[in-house]
Amino acid sequence: MSVFSEDQLRRYEVYRRSALGKSTVRKLVASVLQQTVSPTMAFVVAGFTKVYVGEIIETARDVMVEWGQTGPLRPEHLREAQRRYKATHGTPACSLHRRRPPAGF
User: Fold this and answer.
1) How far apart are CA 61 and CA 74, in angstroms?
2) What is the pLDDT of residues 54-65, one digit of tens each?
3) What is the pTM of this model?
4) Domains in the chain and their CATH numbers?
5) b/e map of 26-52 (b: 16 or more CB within 10 Å)?
6) What is the CA radius of gyration of the chain?
7) Can you give the pLDDT at residue 46?
8) How far is the C-alpha of 83 from the C-alpha of 4, rounded, in Å?
9) Whole-angstrom Cα distance, residue 65 to residue 77?
10) CA–CA dist 73, 52 (Å, integer)
11) Which residues, in sequence order, are CB contacts of 69 under 8 Å at separation 6+?
12) How far apart are CA 17 and CA 45, in angstroms?
């Protein structure tokens, strides 16, 4: 953290203080999985989501700098960051949308 610029340090402090609402995460995960979700699972998903959003935002800021732009992030920066994330990490979450085999298989 000693090598952070003032702006990076400020963003890091905001990131550390931020949190996703556990009840909202729990409801969303329950609706996707169509089953009840424990508070522990909601906590874990909220943590992973926070890291994911942080990575997308940092990549979007890099995109903005690469493109020689300044100011707030714009949708095109976020879309490019998401595209890059998918290219390097894949999309493991897409397996949730696959059809489940019928019972007995």
Assistant:
1) 10
2) 899 999 999 999
3) 0.72
4) 6-97 (1.10.20.10)
5) bebbeeeeeeebeeeebeebbeeebee
6) 18
7) 92
8) 26
9) 10
10) 17
11) 77
12) 17
